[in-house]
Structure formats: C-alpha cells, structure tokens
Amino acid sequence: MSPVRELELADGAPARCCTPVAEPGLTIEEAATTARLFKALADPHRLRIINVLATSGGSVCGCDLEEPLGLSQATVSFHLKKLFDAGLLDREKRGVWVYYSLNREAVTRLGDVLRFDRRR
Question: Is-contact 79 47, C-beta < 8 A?
C-alpha cells in the first residue's frame, strides 16, 4: 500500500496549508492554495468519484468507476488525476491496474478548512 502523502497541489505547493476560513488574516497565498483545492472538487464527476471512494470501504480500481459513473475510461482517468494531483487521493499500482482510495488525512484537513465553530 502506498504511504500517506502530504496534501500537495499539482504545482508542488504543500497544502498542509489551508488556514481555516474562519481564522483571521487569511493571506492571498493561503486563499489561492485553498481555492486550488476547491477547484479540484468543483466538478460533479469528481464529487461522484469522491462519493464512490468514500462509501466503498477500501480502494477501488479506476476501471471499476466507469460503469457507475457512466463515463469513459479516459474521462475517469482525467478526473482521477485531478483529484490525485490535488492530494485528495492515494493510488496504488497492482500489476497493470491502478487502485484509488481517499487520502483520509487530506480529507480531514480539508474539512477543517470550513470549520466555523472555532472559538478564540
């Protein structure tokens, strides 16, 4: 199984970042990094992929996403790459197949970004 990756964006900027939006003083750089993460999620197909992986109980072969999503292999691969590059997915190659799972640490940190119940 692949190790847990640090949440990274495709441009290499670490997204251990993501200052919660409820915290004062969000810089333009922090806002831009967070926006890139949300951009990776701003597609209905990608949200459905996240949903399938979140409810699967484990890793899923990319080939097994075509039928439930009603998408071609190329389209599924495109969306998986976007989510992987955003650091939201882990992947593991098994022979010729690639299996994907949610990067739970990244998803938890992303959830913390929108937590508004923080008290100072």
Answer: no
Looking at per-residue pLDDT, the higher value among 107 and 102 belongs to 102
The model carries a pTM of 0.76
Average pLDDT over residues 51-78: 94
The structural domains of the chain, ordered by start, are: 43-103 (1.10.10.10)
Q: Say how many C-beta atoms besides its own lie within 10 A of residue 78's C-beta.
A: 14
State the Cα–Cα distance between residues 117 and 38, nearest whole angstrom.
20
Judged on CB neighbours under 10 Å (0-12, 13-18, 19+), 7 is buried
- Residue 118 has a pLDDT of 55
In the three-class reduction of DSSP (H, G, I as helix; E, B as strand; rest coil), residue 43 is classed as coil
Three-state secondary structure call for residue 89: strand
